[in-house]
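2024-03-11 09:14:02 DEBUG pipeline.ingest accepted 1 chain
2024-03-11 09:14:02 DEBUG pipeline.ingest length=343
2024-03-11 09:14:03 DEBUG pipeline.predict start
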Amino acid sequence: MFRRTCFAWLLAALLPGTLLAKEEPAAVLVDAAFKPAEQAGKLLAVTEAQALKGVKRVVVPLFSVEFVTADSMRAETSGFGAAGRASAAAYYKLTGVGEAEFQAMTEALYAGFVRELQAAGLEVLPQAQLAASPIYRKLAASGSAAPIRNDASLVMAPAGMAIYGLNKAQATGGGGGLFSALSAMGNVASAMGAVMDTAELHKELGAAVLEVQMRVHFVQLTNNNKGFLGRMAGSASVGAQVFPRIAMATLSVHRDTRGTLSLTGPLALDPAAFTEVRKAPTTAGDVAAGVATALIRLASNSRDSSSSEELLAVADPARYRDIVGAGLAGVNEMFITRLRAGE
């Protein structure tokens, strides 16, 4: 039964969003009035609550934060009647902060998480004891060293900590579509093996095994031509709002059963983390490609039109670290509030 349950949630988690698309809930604003401990009961969903009850002794073998660094969206019309099709694409990249800042933030966040666990009265096993475990060494050997670099993100972990199991599979799962879906399904077996090993780690160490996974985004893109009326419009456009947001956060608690605490929706942080949004530099190749496309349309009498823009979201390093770091620390506080309450 436990194996079947693990397989079901692993498959759902690994399938790309293109196949399991869901509308993202409206973001909750995190401002000066936001009190994480008071919001923990409202903003965290729990599965298998019994896994959270009576936790006294814990170990943290996995703590990862994914920082999204690029995103894009395309919108298009149907070209109904005599009108040509219209399409628009927007490409956004994060700049001003990078791997060094992300690593420092992840290290500080992990250290704070451990301190708060201890302050809540929980015994946290030292990393040296964890590293001596043969089962953990097997888990670490199946994982990847951080950071895991993708075209659109960096997945960070504290120095020396491997990213394994579901976290690794999601970080290396590809960009969507059927090929990525098949690749993701191929990752299920190894990720499921990691879940089984984690259950054994709990028994070996006599401690609840805590795994934390978070994702930070920087822009929210909207297809303004979504739906029937949008596709019937005469022009295509993509809307964008640049602000840091915690798009996902999950605390997994492995004991005799696996319980999770997960954000029910994104958290919107202060846009003051960014100083400006500007166009990316245009290269000679970009200009040549645009001219060639225009000439082809002219020669074929095509009524179709298309546009695209590449933009840079420029972060202020100090403000970004303060704002995003505080937001993530607030999620830590929510996790520990619920864990301490045992629900």
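2024-03-11 09:14:41 DEBUG pipeline.report Residues 177-205 form the longest helix (29 residues).
2024-03-11 09:14:41 DEBUG pipeline.predict end
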